[in-house]
Amino acid sequence: MDDLKFGKRNKRGDWAPNQPAETAPLFAFPPRLMAVLKWLPHYFFPWNAIFAASAVAYWAWVIPPVETMRTLSLGWIAWLYAVNAVAVFLFYGAFELHLYVLKRQENRFKYNGKFPADHKSNAFWFERQNLDNMLRTFLWGVTIWTAVEVGMLWAYANGYAPWLSFAENPWTLALVALVVPIIHEFHFFCIHRLIHTPLLYKWVHSVHHNSVNPSPWSSLSMHPIEHLLYFGTAFYHLFLPSNPILMLYQLHYAGFGAIPGHVGFDKVEIGKEKLVDSHAYAHYLHHKYFEVNYGDALIPLDKWFGTWHDGSPEGEAQMQERYRRRKEKLAASKARLEVGGAAE
């Protein structure tokens, strides 16, 4: 597959798409009906459909009976951790094997032309990004994922969360299912801005940003506090008219859904002719520039708050202008403090 038909590569070997990143037309004003209808299939396929199907599969074959979940016990908790760990290993590992171990695409469609395994860095445990990322994923990521899952299932089993049946409330639950990605986007943007405040960034979020060149195992490589905030997206279902399957969908959207944004490739080649879009460019730019694209572009929150970067020269200029204004503001503030101190 010739990736230069879709983008360009610089002298360092980094690839960028020809088209700048775009926000979804869902919240455009005035409304763009035709654009929404054209975009709508991408809302469901392939990623959201995969995460929803995995939630249904969990409910059918993994989640214990309600009677069992009414009481917290090591047996079913350990079972859920084991299934989650295996699922993450297989799902994340499939992308890692295809793109980074076997390198079946080489560096076609890869934003950063380098591969993390080829470079050591003391920012990571054992100076290895992949090993560091995997350990953090399984030690804390899957553990906290499972803890939130167990807590929510226990709440449903004991009547502490609203549990609507699909038979009696099909339209309500269909609406909740449709907005699961929107809930995730809103939650992710809010906690992401929070952990970019100086103190939390230094002690919490910097762990995730060590992976400047993200790969699949970077997806859940976080500080435990960030894991708890991130998977806290499931807690909305304590108040929403919802269902355990939709809560699982919300969790899987966060857990398995972290992969597309960190896969490091714009498109994944399936066979010789088929391409699957990762829609990762906006989040890759966040890992590259740190202070842009706090959301995933489903809701144009970054546009509304002035932190959007679409990868274009215009986006770069806007980012640099924002940095310049902030630098001037800090310099002015420092000057006022110095004048005030001299006056005393």
UniProtKB/TrEMBL annotation:
Name the chain's protein. Sterol desaturase family protein
Localization annotation: Membrane
Q: What class of enzyme is it?
A: oxidoreductase
Residue ranges of every copy of the Fatty acid hydroxylase domain listed in the record: 178-307
Q: Where are the transmembrane segments?
A: 43-64, 76-102, 138-157, 169-191
EC numbers, comma separated? 1.-.-.-
What's a Pfam family in this record? FA_hydroxylase
Source species: Rhizobium redzepovicii
